[in-house]
Design brief:
Helices cover about 35% and strands about 20% of the residues. It has helices at about 20-25, 35-45, 60-65, 95-105, 125-135, 155-170, 185-190, 200-205, 215-234; strands at about 1-5, 15-20, 50-55, 75, 80-85, 90, 110-115, 120, 140-145, 145-150, 175-180, 195, 210.
């Protein structure tokens, strides 16, 4: 792992929470979640590390995903708009999400409605961008590889993650975030230990405190190993 921005190797020993993106982060770059990564996450949880999955995916998918692991402390779904913690579901800016969906319908933009956000169908990002520009600042379009999501303007992964941390009693300063795509950029603007994967977009590698040698799940396993090793030394 390459440390950047003058990051102290000892910083990993202060980490109590791992907040990880899902697609091409927990999974391999071909979107397969392999057993080695599941075992590494379970080992981290068994060692006392809090685990939060932060994704643009919907709540149903992410709840089904938790069955693959022994324990997940919290889920941040819909790119930060929905927080699931201790069995409670909190929807951030739900009314704004409804208004945004109505505006997209009026502009004839094809989308799928989540609990709060609207998922734009592939090939329609340009139309969505024009619609968002006409909404008077209540919405924003977040792109992720070849897809996109329209969210309330004051919601993102950073906001959802901070809400989850508060519910769990952890602070941002003891949290490591890891991701790969454009929609992870909000987390990399937050007060976390920021780790970009080898397969990350330049928006993340330019802000990262560390960059893994491996891509996807391999990089997450590398990060977990670094955290657990440093915690043992502490």
């Amino acid at each position: 792992m390459k440390l950047t921005n003058g990051t102290d190797p000892g910083a990993f020993g202060a980490i109590s929470v791992l907040a990880t993106d899902y697609d091409r982060t927990l999974t391999d770059t071909d979107l397969v979640l392999n057993r080695e990564t599941i075992r590494a996450v379970d080992e981290a949880s068994d060692a006392g590390l809090g685990i939060i999955i932060v994704s643009g995916r919907g709540v149903r998918f992410m709840r089904n995903l938790t069955d693959r692991f022994r324990h997940i402390d919290a889920l941040v779904a819909e790119n930060g708009a929905v927080v699931v913690c201790n069995g409670h579901v909190e929807k951030l800016q739900e009314r704004a999400g409804e208004k945004i969906a109505m505006q997209l319908m009026q502009h004839h933009v094809p989308f799928v409605k989540g609990q709060v956000i609207s998922y734009i169908q592939k090939g329609h990002l340009e139309e969505a961008e024009k619609a968002v520009d006409s909404m008077g600042g209540i919405a924003k379009l977040v792109k992720n590889i070849d897809s996109g999501m329209v969210l309330p303007s004051n919601v993102d992964k950073d906001v959802g993650l901070l809400s989850a941390l508060e519910k769990l009693g952890f602070s941002a300063s003891e949290t490591a975030v890891v991701g790969d795509g454009e929609n992870d950029a909000a987390m990399f603007a937050g007060p976390f230990l920021r780790v970009a994967l080898k397969n990350s977009v330049p928006q993340l590698t330019g802000r990262a405190d560390a960059i893994t040698d491996g891509a996807g799940g391999e990089g997450v396993r590398e990060l977990i190993s670094a955290i657990l090793s440093a915690r043992k030394k502490e």
